[in-house]
UniProtKB/TrEMBL annotation:
Recorded family membership: Belongs to the aldo/keto reductase family.
Statement: the UniProt record of this protein carries the keyword Oxidoreductase: yes
Protein name: Aldo/keto reductase
Keyword Glycosyltransferase belongs to the record: no
Organism: Neglectibacter timonensis
Xref: PANTHER family: 2,5-DIKETO-D-GLUCONIC ACID REDUCTASE (PTHR43827), NADP-DEPENDENT OXIDOREDUCTASE DOMAIN-CONTAINING PROTEIN (PTHR43827:SF3)
Short name of any one Pfam family annotated for the protein: Aldo_ket_red
CDD domains to which the protein is assigned, alphabetical: AKR_AKR5F1
PROSITE patterns, per database record: ALDOKETO_REDUCTASE_1 (PS00798), ALDOKETO_REDUCTASE_2 (PS00062), ALDOKETO_REDUCTASE_3 (PS00063)
Superkingdom in the source lineage: Bacteria
Residue intervals of the NADP-dependent oxidoreductase domain: 21-257
Coiled coil residues, start to end: none
UniProtKB keywords: NADP, Oxidoreductase
């Protein structure tokens, strides 16, 4: 496994396992499978409804806690100092651990400054090792960085070969924030797994389109959290550390960038209404 060092000195695996849209009933088995394959970073969230299952897997897996990197996120309905503080303690209890490695604000809505203050306090108390944000566009990220005491360690945003977030990446680097990808496979949209550019490059390295896409992100300094409920696919996604993409192949993948989200825009009022109306 390769690691990045966050702006507070904490090391984070460049490849993790995400449990978005994995049911609470199935999640425990999936996390145990992922840990068996070799993953040590697990990404969950209050809104996913499966923190308990992740906690069960942590308790049962037999991997020393210090070798694990556990991430969760505070949802919009828990925004604000008081609610966020209560929800963080609840997440800690559900995860059945004495500390959480990384906590992110899930969406840039509601009183996220109050949420961040609660996270800063937990960080200073030592039971959260790093804090950051998710889905913060460059304008929101810059605003937050300018007015908080602790610079976010991570910003987790939609990032894949069709939406490479090059401008956002520049601002994250400027402010010392680690770029993390959600949806590294674009959830299979635009025939992702059979894309001709990715599959042709894959033939050269005897790798799949998915493996080429993950390697591309890693070489660009982006942490990725692919998801699969199948153990063999988990293993395949993990097998990306035995090759390096040549510059001409990196350039070919860069050319796939359409610079637009395949899912939603926070600048769309209907999207904001939808997200802020969801309850965890």
């Amino acid at each position: 496994m390769e690691f990045v060092t966050l702006n507070n000195g904490i090391k984070m695996p460049v490849l993790g396992y995400g449990v978005y849209q994995v049911s609470n009933e199935e999640c425990e088995r999936c996390v145990l499978d992922a840990l068996c394959v070799g993953y040590r970073s697990i990404d969950t969230a209050q809104a996913y409804g499966n923190e308990e299952a992740v906690g069960n897997a942590i308790r049962k897996c037999g991997v020393p806690r210090e070798e694990l990197f556990i991430t969760t996120k505070v949802w919009v309905s828990n925004a604000g100092y008081k609610k966020a503080k209560e929800s963080l303690r609840e997440s800690l209890q559900k995860l059945q651990t004495k500390y959480i490695d990384l906590v992110l604000i899930h969406q840039p809505f509601g009183d996220y400054y109050g949420t961040y203050r609660a996270m800063e306090e937990a960080y200073q108390e030592g039971w959260i090792r790093a804090i950051g944000v998710s889905n913060f566009y460059p304008d929101r990220l810059v605003d937050l960085c300018r007015f908080v005491d602790i610079t976010p360690a991570v910003n987790q945003v939609e990032t894949h070969v069709f939406q490479q977030q090059q401008k956002a990446h520049e601002y994250m680097e400027k402010y010392g924030v680690q770029h993390e990808s959600w949806g590294p496979f674009a959830e299979g949209r635009k025939d992702f797994f059979t894309n001709s550019v990715l599959t042709e490059i894959g033939k050269k390295y005897r790798k799949t389109a998915a493996q080429i896409a993950l390697r591309f992100l890693i070489q660009n300094g982006v942490v990725a959290i692919p998801k699969s409920t199948h153990k063999d696919r988990m293993a395949q996604n993990f097998d990306v550390f035995d090759f390096v993409l040549a510059e001409e192949d990196m350039a070919a993948v860069r050319a796939l960038d359409e610079k637009e989200s395949l899912f939603f825009s926070h600048y769309d009022p209907a999207t904001v209404e939808m997200i802020t109306g969801l309850r965890r």
